[in-house]
Design a protein that fits this description.
Largest sheet: 7 strands, parallel
CATH class: Alpha Beta
Structural class: mainly beta
Number of strands: 13
Radius of gyration: 15 Å
Shape: globular
CATH superfamily: Ribonuclease Inhibitor
Helix content: under 10%
Strand content: 25-35%
CATH architecture: Alpha-Beta Horseshoe
Oligomer: single chain
Length: 168
């Protein structure tokens, strides 16, 4: 991809791309939308992702073959409104730092704020701090190995339109 330093949107959805997360994107800090969904990308989500993509609003890497855990660095993307990581081979817990995604905290009806972490091997409890995301409208944690109770304060999330915790 070269050095496309001012590129703001990359949409390479539904191809037969294989290999790892494109490291050439590391040089671009202007990206606000990245859709690499429905490919055959593998290995781990890079640790530099949150540090380099601070202005990212949409990150879709669903339906690939990424493995490992969801890095806490992903929470460095404070402008993130849409996060789709579903249908990968990710495992481990849900990062507690998700409550730091400021764009999902603000109750701005013009923002579509969505988290899809379904169809993974995520384990542990649903972080209570996820209920701090007052602007969140869609939350899908289905088809995982989550345990424990649904956080009580989830009922206080007034913007939440859809929630799916099925098959845990």
């Amino acid at each position: 991809m070269g050095s496309l330093a001012y590129l703001q949107s990359v949409q390479i959805r539904n191809n037969s791309l294989s290999g790892i997360f494109p490291t050439t994107l590391k040089e671009n800090s202007k990206l606000i939308m990245l859709d690499l969904g429905e490919n055959n990308l593998s290995r781990t989500i890079p640790l530099w992702i949150g540090k380099r993509f601070k202005n990212m609003k949409l990150l879709c890497i669903r339906s690939n073959k990424f493995s490992g855990y969801i890095p806490n660095k992903i929470c460095g993307m404070s402008h993130l409104q849409v996060l789709y990581l579903a249908h990968n081979n990710l495992s481990g817990g849900i990062p507690n730092c998700l409550n730091q995604l400021n764009a999902m905290i603000l109750m701005n009806k013009r923002l579509v704020t969505s988290i899809d972490l379904s169809n993974k091997k995520l384990s542990g409890e649903i972080p209570r701090k996820i209920t701090n995301l007052n602007g969140l409208t869609f939350l899908n944690l289905s088809h995982n190995q989550l345990i424990g109770h649904i956080p009580q304060r989830i009922g206080n999330m007034r913007s939440l339109l859809s929630i799916d915790f099925s098959r845990n």
